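User: Fold this; tokens only.

Assistant: Input:
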Amino acid sequence: MSQMQSSTLDARYIKAGGEIMMNMRIGVSGSCALPHSEVCVNDDHRQVYRAKKSSALGKQVTVSRTFALLLVVLTTIIMFTQFMERVNEGHSLESAILDTQEEYMRVGRELQTLNADFDKARDSSYICYYAAQKLGMKRAVDESIIKISASDTRPVLLDGMYVTKSAGI
């Protein structure tokens, strides 16, 4: 930030920022070297130096209108192609979501069917019906029942030792 000192009645004040610009006039040096400049005279008959645009900005690159139009059209085509790829990707995702939803509904129906079959298979009346109809088994009457019991093969702790329990014990 530039500053300017001014003295008023032996007191010194420093102006800065917007205050400095209010009372300040622009001074021009008596000698100024501008290469490749044009000299002209303004209304007060002062010499005004203006630098040429090419020397101030450096070498300018010019582009033909045809090339610029071709560049804009090519950019638009690339952007449109990218947009259409995104749209197609969105459609494929939507179809994948629909397929997944259909698969989910199918699996839900299959689960309901399997649960119904399982509940039916657990029912004792269905077990008897299946044994009689599909396997050809007959219902046992009291005279034809033979009771068979298997020996218990689990070890039993007897006098601090594990022994196998037999039918006689």
